[in-house]
Amino acid sequence: MTAMGILTLPRVVTSATQTPDGWLSVLISGLLLILFSMVLIKLCQRFPEETFYQFSQKIIGKWFGILLSLVLIIYFLLLGAFEVRGMAEVTHLYLLPRTPFMATVVPFICLGVYLIVGGINPIARLFDILLPPTILVFLIVILLSLKTFEINNLRPILGMGVLPVVKGIQPTALSLTGIESMLVVFSFMKEPHKGIKAATIGISIPLFFYIMTTIFTIASLGVAGVQTKTWPVLSLFRQFEYTGIIFERFETFILAIWILQIFTTFVTCYYIAVLGLSQLFQTKIKPFIFGLAPILYLIALSPKNINDVFHFGNLLGYFGLLFILPIPLMLLLIAIWRGKKHVSAS
């Protein structure tokens, strides 16, 4: 969940609310997501050893299940390509302004291929390694940004009522998507009965990131300033510097960490897409891993400019919400009605 969305979230939610209360919209969205995730987990718990691609066919029939699975595969493929393009845009703007997109996109995709070939275990281990330094660097840089923190930029709370907060809930869709990956990775859980606990913790960590980032960005840049920045979070970390120490500017650290987080999201999407094709066609996964790489590259470079990238991301965010509540709820109700339940052999 911690990927491209967090870099633009303060601008998106503030543009919708037009008040300093955007962080309340993020909080409410996160709590709703935790509630919705319970429906998703309850569905997966009925088929603890199977992925969405497998149990959807048991619930709604083979052909409808395949069709819905193909939709999910396309969604994750497009989301993975979006993350790659987002990484290239940020890298081009802040780190490598004279380097063409191809020079950053190709190695990024190749690293993803290299990791995915090893299967789910190296993917999970890498994510375990990357989470602690991400939290540490984030907290350090956020605390350092207190230098530009202005509490008056967050006042008054609910000065224009609750309606602006409600308007800010929907635009957070892209940033809050990610839990739909549990439709597939849930089948790898050793203790599926702890799924709701895992999902709640998994949502709470990025939700904390989002709320803190939104608060500090608005407090430092102001409501008007946030809306004029393409990447307001990175602009926040460029607002301050500490002279006389080894590192005077800190946006490079947060950018490096977030490129790693973008990579984790890309790898997750890529793996879920190729696993789905492998299970649908009941063949080995490796041909799909290598075969989808050029397609990912072409999709990633298809947006003509940054506005197209943001529009692409917004569409994916809204589309992803279908796999968080409506579709899992529909399948869960049908499964209950038809009495479909797979009992784990263990």
TrEMBL record:
Location of this chain's protein in the cell: Membrane
Topology within the bilayer: Multi-pass membrane protein
GO cellular component, one term: membrane
Alphabetized UniProt keyword annotations: Germination, Membrane, Transmembrane, Transmembrane helix, Transport
GO terms under biological process: spore germination
InterPro entries attached to this UniProt entry: Spore_GerAB
Regions crossing the membrane: 23-43, 63-82, 94-117, 129-149, 169-189, 201-226, 253-273, 285-303, 315-337
Annotated coiled-coil segments of the chain: none
Family the UniProt entry places it in: Belongs to the amino acid-polyamine-organocation (APC) superfamily. Spore germination protein (SGP) (TC 2.A.3.9) family.
Protein name, as recorded: GerAB/ArcD/ProY family transporter
Species for this entry: Shimazuella alba
